[in-house]
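User: Let's play a game. I give you a shape written as tokens, and you guess the letters that built it. Ready? Here's round one.
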């Protein structure tokens, strides 16, 4: 009776395919194998029979008769995919309604069909040794190998003073066998006693609690909050130390690993060595080394982007998500998942604590704390007596900038005073380029993207208009494309480039540095910019949201927010929460050392609850307000939400498909479908998009409802080929 094995391939198929297991292979779940698929050799993973959890498996196809199955070609050398990672892949697939193979692909990024060349050497096989000793040459070879260390042929021949032929013949006779030669461990073991911080009593008690949780080896989610600069990082480094001491591995997720130079330095200062790093731009060789080290337990600490969740930790003992409120944790293309939420799942499968860290926790996490699902640990004050910055709003109606300018006289004065005192100032505007809109003064035409519902953004340094959604670029036109008027096109509104131009005119002697993703294209340039600021080679920093990351600039005492209202427009229910989090984070860059900090918010709506919360530094009350607004309508986190994004090549096809989906929408107690309506970007990359939102009560699982809904729709409506429906469970905008 031939044995079938399910093999999951890293492609968007509905589930694993069956193959025949050749008797000599003895395959186990998790083994990485080479299998034939459409006459090509593909990598796959031997999967478990059980398949998807909790009845979420989609209807499986009838089994293929055994005589039609193809055999597995080979098992790849190297470590298998551990069980917890396989369970995690299944879980993410089921939760996000993604094909499991697509999720597996994220766990297989370090693999390729080309076999890895692992250096091998000879060791004693342990058999027939009496025979071997018959000749002195063979005896010398065995004596050299007595220490068990594998040696390549040439080295062994030299040491045993025999010819290479003797060794090869011993191999052929089965007296010797090949074994991989150990490579030096790629990551040094962090030294937990290298330079432990002298923690404050509050920090120490939080660190102790975290350490106990690590040693308990139980799943426990916990929110670690505390104002910016209170030492959250310093404290959770101690939890990592406890995890290393316990012999397990720790995973730290950062929202933007490319902008983490200061974090890595702090880690090195604390532990005397760098951790393993994981992100999508890692070179393929480094990726393989890191994957293998994680899998062998030789990478005690991994710091990475969201994809690090899919590494093969054999013994994960701690998961940390820093800046847990960051939207960068949401992956929007391919498998749509929220790395913060999936990190909690990963920790649960590993029986480890999950620590979510933020000065401005998301409403979801606060709700979980309130419900008693998450523990709550708080650091109460800034470290070393540093005070929180004072925040005030500048009412732009009262203190308007000069015509055609964007900085209020009050902000200019404060920046000048700061720099005169030998301190540093920062201007924050979350908008790249020169101007977000180009308008014709003659006919009123606004230049928009040919592929998207979006205005083109002028990038003056590059002499281009760019779409920030699809990447379309064109030269800045001389004539209005609509009415042909000459010299009539005017930039409207500011981007960082324009603020920089204004700042250079206003502060001609200041040393200015611009931090935006297009001026700092890689981790190296970002790290260098950060070093220059920290070393006080810069007086004035102007930047986009890059500057809001967890930087520690001791000389920075003034933060000016150029347009605090930006981000509050539009119909997104979450806009206020996100704006408060971002601005609080930017504000937190000011006054982190001895000199007190000051934050000025330029706003046309100083009475807005967001501005009030920032000025009063009362994040808690603001979130309660938000909660009160969302609760009655069952908006997240008080209900569940899933979005269906319907896209098609034409508006007619998109409407047709979206309306058909609307007609077979699920009904039931506590189930509600909103839409179809134009999606937030109604046209993106030439695709017309509509959105339907499914909203349910919190205790309802949305996945079975969605599966049924999509099934109904496919049954009843034939759709043009160009129609695609993307599912987004827990969308971050609504
Ligand atoms: P957070 O993560 O809460 O923003 P950090 O951990 O970055 O705070 O701490 C802010 C600054 O204070 C950092 O420069 C950090 O090294 C320093 N710091 C915090 N706690 C201590 C401590 N116990 N001893 C020495 N330095 C500390
Ligand atoms: Zn576009």
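Assistant: Ready! My guess for every position:
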């Amino acid at each position: 009776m031939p044995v079938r094995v399910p093999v999951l391939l890293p492609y968007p198929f509905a589930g694993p395919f069956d193959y025949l297991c050749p008797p000599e292979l003895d395959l186990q779940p998790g083994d990485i194998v080479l299998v034939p698929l459409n006459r090509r050799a593909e990598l796959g993973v031997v999967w478990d029979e059980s398949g998807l959890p909790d009845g979420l498996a989609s209807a499986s196809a009838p089994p293929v008769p055994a005589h039609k199955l193809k055999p597995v070609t080979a098992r790849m050398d190297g470590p298998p995919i551990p069980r917890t990672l396989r369970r995690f892949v299944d879980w993410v697939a089921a939760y996000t309604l993604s094909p499991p193979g697509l999720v597996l692909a994220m766990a297989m990024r370090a693999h390729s069909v080309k076999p890895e060349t692992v250096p091998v050497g000879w060791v004693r096989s342990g058999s027939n040794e009496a025979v071997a000793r018959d000749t002195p040459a063979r005896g010398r070879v065995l004596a050299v190998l007595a220490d068990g260390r594998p040696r390549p042929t040439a080295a062994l021949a030299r040491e045993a003073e025999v010819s290479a032929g003797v060794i090869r013949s011993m191999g052929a006779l089965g007296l010797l066998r090949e074994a991989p030669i150990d490579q030096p461990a790629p990551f040094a073991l962090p030294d937990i006693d290298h330079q432990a911080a002298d923690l404050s009593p509050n920090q120490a008690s939080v660190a102790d609690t975290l350490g106990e949780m690590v040693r308990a080896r139980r799943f426990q989610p916990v929110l670690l909050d505390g104002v910016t600069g209170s030492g959250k990082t310093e404290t959770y480094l101690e939890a990592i130390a406890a995890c290393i001491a316990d012999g397990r591995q720790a995973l730290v997720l950062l929202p933007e690993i490319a902008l983490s130079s200061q974090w890595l330095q702090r880690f090195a200062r604390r532990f005397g060595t760098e951790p393993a790093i994981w992100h999508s731009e890692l070179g393929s060789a480094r990726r393989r080394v890191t994957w293998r080290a994680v899998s062998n337990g030789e990478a005690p600490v991994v710091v990475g982007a969201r994809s690090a969740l899919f590494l093969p930790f054999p013994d994960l003992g701690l998961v940390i998500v820093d800046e847990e409120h960051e939207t960068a944790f949401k992956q929007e293309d391919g498998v749509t998942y929220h790395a913060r939420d999936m990190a909690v799942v990963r920790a649960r499968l590993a029986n480890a604590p999950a620590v979510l860290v933020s000065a401005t926790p998301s409403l979801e996490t606060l709700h979980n704390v309130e419900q008693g699902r998450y523990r709550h640990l708080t650091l109460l004050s800034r470290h070393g007596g540093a005070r929180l910055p004072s925040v005030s709003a500048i009412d732009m109606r009262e203190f308007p900038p000069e015509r055609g300018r964007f900085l209020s006289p009050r902000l200019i004065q404060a920046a000048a005073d700061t720099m005169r005192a030998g301190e540093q100032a920062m201007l924050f505007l979350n908008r790249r380029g020169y101007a977000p809109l180009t308008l014709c003064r003659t006919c009123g035409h606004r230049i928009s993207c040919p592929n998207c519902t979006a205005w083109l953004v002028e990038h003056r340094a590059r002499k281009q208009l760019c779409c920030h959604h699809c990447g379309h670029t064109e030269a800045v036109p001389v004539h209005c494309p609509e009415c042909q008027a000459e010299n009539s096109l005017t930039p409207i509104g500011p981007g960082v480039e324009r603020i920089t131009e204004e700042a250079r005119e206003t502060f001609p002697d200041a040393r200015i540095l611009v931090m935006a993703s297009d001026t700092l294209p890689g981790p190296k340039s970002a790290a260098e910019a950060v070093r220059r600021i920290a070393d006080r080679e810069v007086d004035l920093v102007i930047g986009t949201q890059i500057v809001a990351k967890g930087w520690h600039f001791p000389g920075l005492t003034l933060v000016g927010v150029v347009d605090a209202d930006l981000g509050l427009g539009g119909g997104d229910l979450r806009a206020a929460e996100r704006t408060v989090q971002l601005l609080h984070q930017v504000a937190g860059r000011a006054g982190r050392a001895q000199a007190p900090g000051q934050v000025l918010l330029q706003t046309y709506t100083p009475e807005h609850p967001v501005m009030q919360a920032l000025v009063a530094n009362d994040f808690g009350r603001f979130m309660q307000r938000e909660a009160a607004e969302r609760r009655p309508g069952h908006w997240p986190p008080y209900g569940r939400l899933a979005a269906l994004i319907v896209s098609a090549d034409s508006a007619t096809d998109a409407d047709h498909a979206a309306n058909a989906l609307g007609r077979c929408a699920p009904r039931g107690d506590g189930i509600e479908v909103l839409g179809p309506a134009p999606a937030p970007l109604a046209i993106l990359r030439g695709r017309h998009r509509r959105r339907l939102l499914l909203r349910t009560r919190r205790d309802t699982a949305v996945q079975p409802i969605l599966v049924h809904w999509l099934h109904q729709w496919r049954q009843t409506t034939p759709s043009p080929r160009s129609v695609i429906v993307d599912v987004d469970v827990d969308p971050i905008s609504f």
